C-alpha cells in the first residue's frame, strides 16, 4: 500500500436508521458532531433516513419512508405511464 493516500480520520462510526432504530457500526471518514455509546464505547453517530433494514427492496415490504414528498411527486409525474404499463 502507498503511504499517505488514505484519510487520517478513518475510524469506526455508528450509523442509526431513524425509521426503525437499527444501529450498525462501520468504518468511515464522515464528519459528525453527535456521538452514541454502544456497549460502553462511544462512537460518532450518523443518522440515516433509510438503510437496508428499512428499505422495501431488502425487506420485501412496501413501507415507504418519504420525508420530502418525493414519492408523491414521482407518482404524479409518471401516473399516466404507470397506468399504461399496468394495463
SSE arrangement:
Layout lengths: L10 E7 L5 E6 L6 E4 L2 E8 L7 H4 L10 H8 L1 H8 L1
Parallel strand pairs: 1-4
Antiparallel strand pairs: 1-2, 3-4
Enumerate the spans where pLDDT stays under 50 for 5 or more consecutive residues. Answer: none
Order of strands, main sheet, comes to 2-1-4-3
Order of helices and strands: EEEEHHH
The proportion of residues in beta strands is 25-35%
Number of helices: 3
What Rg is obtained from the alpha carbons, in whole angstroms?
19 Å
| Envelope shape | elongated
Structural class: alpha+beta
Description:
The protein has helices at 56-59, 70-77, 79-86, and strands at residues 11-17, 23-28, 35-38, 41-48. By secondary structure, the chain is an alpha+beta fold. The protein has a 4-stranded mixed beta sheet with strand order 2-1-4-3, with no helix packed on it. The radius of gyration is 19 Å and the shape is elongated. The mean pLDDT is 80.
